Request: fold
Amino acid sequence: SRRITVRDVAAAKARDEKWPMLTAYDAMTASVFDEAGIPVLLVGDSMGNCHLGYESTVPVTMDEITLLSAAVVRGTKRALVVGDLPFGSYQEGPVQALRNATRLVKEAGVGAVKLEGGERSAGQVELLVSSGIPVMAHVGLTPQSVNAYGGYPVQGRGEEAAQQLLRDAKAVQDAGAFAVVLEAVPSELAAEVTRSLAIPTVGIGAGPDCDAQVLVWTDMAGMTAGRVPKFVKQYLALRKLLGDAAKEFAEDVVGGAFPAEPHVFH
Ligand code: KIV
Ligand code: NA
Reply:
């Protein structure tokens, strides 16, 4: 069976079907989500926080995104794999964006790329799409701007900010984006944006009325250390389960219970 394409994603909106997206950063985890039927996997620059040990997404490089995107593509058969363009890889302008997006498509084999920004990134979206690279845009809270925000504040509150968010979403749609992530915006505004657009909205902290929902997989699975944002639902306590397994292994080794007869060659 063939891979999901951006056309399938567009068709889902026409049929009013909701769909899930998860992040993935390695082949093994990606294969689990692929076999579970998750149609779209994002190799997010959230890998900075939850896979590479950085404090934010800001330090993530093209080399890192390319390496891990290639692994996710190798680990999957069905999913549309979307590679995130990291901070500094597209802000200089459309030509820089095209050079780096082309690298992700050619070296990693992703089916689409994602970048942050609405009106400010419309020129980049337009050149990529006209060059044959599908683009998922990302508006509302854009984490690569953490140093400008001074944190991760909810976006689009108040009439002026709401109008700007609508303009941003329309700008990337007009530029040819096949979908747009809405991050950390009031549910009512996300619903209005979703109604106003012909392309699917992918919500994260954006309420129930988006066309799709995305979570960072380590948040979804309860692998993340410490507090998680309000919008996260944890479906598993993976951090505890894995830690308990490691402790049991350690006890078995120290106490001599592992390896036992079934694990031994003679
Ligand atoms: O990097 C990421 O994981 C993302 C999603 C949260 C949308 O951009
Ligand atoms: Na991201």
Remarks:
- The two ends are 44 Å apart (CA to CA).
- Residues 6-235 form a domain with the TIM Barrel fold (CATH 3.20.20.60).
